[in-house]
Amino acid sequence: MTAAPAFEPAFARRMDRMKASEIRELLKLLERPGVISFAGGIPDPKLFPAEAAAEAYREALANPAAAAAALQYSVSEGYLPLRAWIGAHMAEQGVPADPDNIMITAGSQQGLDFLGKLLINPRDTVLTLAPTYLGALQAFSAYEPRYESIRPADGNRTPEALRQSAAAAGGRVKFAYFVPDFANPTGETLSLEARQNLLDLARELEASVVEDAAYRALRFSGEPLPSLQALDVAATGSLEASRVVYLGTFSKTVAPGLRVGWVCASKAMIAKLVLITQASELNVSIINQIVMQRIASRLHGDLIERAREHYRLKRDALLAALAAHMPAGVSWTRPEGGLFVWVTLPEGVDGAALLARSVEEVNVAFVPGGAFHPDGGGANTIRLSYSLPSPEAIREGVRRLASLL
Amino acid sequence: MTAAPAFEPAFARRMDRMKASEIRELLKLLERPGVISFAGGIPDPKLFPAEAAAEAYREALANPAAAAAALQYSVSEGYLPLRAWIGAHMAEQGVPADPDNIMITAGSQQGLDFLGKLLINPRDTVLTLAPTYLGALQAFSAYEPRYESIRPADGNRTPEALRQSAAAAGGRVKFAYFVPDFANPTGETLSLEARQNLLDLARELEASVVEDAAYRALRFSGEPLPSLQALDVAATGSLEASRVVYLGTFSKTVAPGLRVGWVCASKAMIAKLVLITQASELNVSIINQIVMQRIASRLHGDLIERAREHYRLKRDALLAALAAHMPAGVSWTRPEGGLFVWVTLPEGVDGAALLARSVEEVNVAFVPGGAFHPDGGGANTIRLSYSLPSPEAIREGVRRLASLL
């Protein structure tokens, strides 16, 4: 591969600030009347199971004994029936997990923070794809790692070279962070071969792999691929021997407002994360865990089915509109799931400058791709999310955006 | 004062383990049939406003627009109407806070974690009272401080001596952590003079003060004392100039199951904590914040009134039973609020050994005080919480316990 850009902590810190201010700017944009926004990466609230949630909260508080448990402190590892449900859900995907392999987190973002806290010493190395999910880098950066980008699809620097770079920086390669399915921001998916390459590399480096499965359930075309954790469990023979830590969430399939996600890992890893939870928020809101268990056990399959169909129509509308309206020299990814399409503009067209014009002249918002490239590349890329606008708004938005190019 | 015991990080780590295993043991004890437990420090679920919570959840999900907001992601600083309510609540206590002085946390325990993350570099010094709340030390210890105990009521080592110790350890005094009102584990309250001493010391050391107000609202006798933050705001003229960071919580006045607490501090401090929240769980469950705002704005005064009366009766029962049954040589604190009485047994009587006998012979549980003394002292102390048992059970439990002495 070509030389990997190394994200230095200073870049990561700069990014933190960018993200904070960027989010505020984006929120302001979303308040503009008539704006068509491809900026958010948040789920469509039309999909939220509001009635099922209302019913589950009602049940959780329906009698004094239930309310006494639902409103009290609880155990740091999480509500046992929810952990059991998630264990069975993981088993369906080839990871035989029992409840002691599961810890509940306040969304998978909290899992990222806790893994950074557990695994990273200052100057350790984290391997990632560039671009990748900014929120993960933001979580890890508090613990002062350096980042090195790898491309498991195209071949990598040798393990020895990575090990030496990490040692020269004063630490070691602690883990690789990947969103293998429909990644934020690109919408791209790691091939089976890339997954195997990544696991081989981690094995040779004796490093962990943090698998962020935020969008995994939202596949609406193509063949499902095994998770990194399922592949590693198959290779090593057991979850206890696996080096993969899997972060799941209900935020994209049920609703983010309850802040319920999970970590699935070896029992030894979960035991350490439970101590970290105990020293942080003690436990994820127990009433929300009870409610999520009720919703998931009743509706999870239906909700996923509905979300897939909903987002598939929107993705199709976006891809068709891009094909119909974008001039030559513009290319884009064709995601098989998730919420994002990644657009590459002709060389020399600046995504941030385009956003300024786009908001001003045609009332369309998106996220410039440079924000996801802490090494300074990607100026001519933009991220389009199709999760919130309707198919009609998507078509109109792309038509307007293309008119600027 | 006498030489201050310095808690070394190794002790803190040992404590973490003690607490984890201890909690499991205590939970097991609580499941024994017929046990009278003074062990828990958790609020009495009889006080939880279950119906008001059910009503508020129903309202939060009553129509599609409300549900779309209540189940979505939200801003990291927290729900504005709740921050406004808390700002007004702080103002009633002499701290003129506007919403930008407030950040919502997942209970005040999360505030402790985030403050450790923000303020502590390895080998920095944290000043505390010994014994103090173990969960705070557990939160801070992840960031590898050293601890030094001070006694603001009895005079302290000079600021210069503390500064030199901190420098010799390789850092500086970053903050003092105190629970000024009805502390866990002793139930004791810092006098006005001790509060002033503590603030003077912090000012001379240019250190922050972390005020953990977990039990502050639960005063049921004696005269209310101003919070450390109110005193410092009065002295410095503004919250922006104050060095006190105040941690509040609804866990002891409404219910812990929603995980809603807050930090009140200067806007500069809040802005930094918001970035930390953004890199951790993104935002505290928004539906829980909406529900808490509704409960607090409707019922907070009533709930506090009811809790004060409820716990006052239990404290009175405990103090009366101790006076009636305990043999000479046993002494105890007389808390004016909160949930705990701290009992000192005759020299040579070991609290941990007494617990073993007590559980075995008379079916009574409590927490041995040694657990709160990481420096190895306090073997002859025990913590009794009156929050969960009824007044009758309290009387019977003390009678049984005294029979062992």
Strand-residue proportion of chain A: 5-15%
Based on CA inertia axes, which overall geometry of chain A fits? Answer: globular
Q: Give the N-to-C terminal Cα separation of chain A.
A: 32 Å
Strand order of the largest sheet of chain A: 1-5-4-6-7-8-9-3
The helix/strand series of chain A, from N terminus to C terminus, equals EHEHHHEHEHEHEHEHEEHHEEHEEEH
User: Residue ranges of chain A: pLDDT <50 for 5 or more in a row?
Assistant: 1-20
Quaternary state reads homodimer
- Helical fraction of chain A: 40-55%
CATH architectural category of the largest domain in chain A: 3-Layer(aba) Sandwich
Largest interchain contact: A-B, 60 and 60 residues
How would a textbook summarize the main sheet of chain A? 8 strands, mixed
Structural domains of chain A: how many: 2
Count of extended strands of chain A: 14
Structural class estimated from helices and strands of chain A: alpha/beta
- Look at the structure and name the CATH superfamily of the largest domain in chain A: Type I PLP-dependent aspartate aminotransferase-like (Major domain)
Mean pLDDT across every amino acid position of chain A:
91
Number of H/I helices of chain A: 13
- CATH fold group of the largest domain in chain A: Aspartate Aminotransferase, domain 2
- Radius of gyration of CA atoms of chain A, rounded to a whole number: 21 Å
Sum this structure up briefly.
Two copies of one chain form a homodimer. The first copy, chain A, is of the alpha/beta class and 405 residues long.
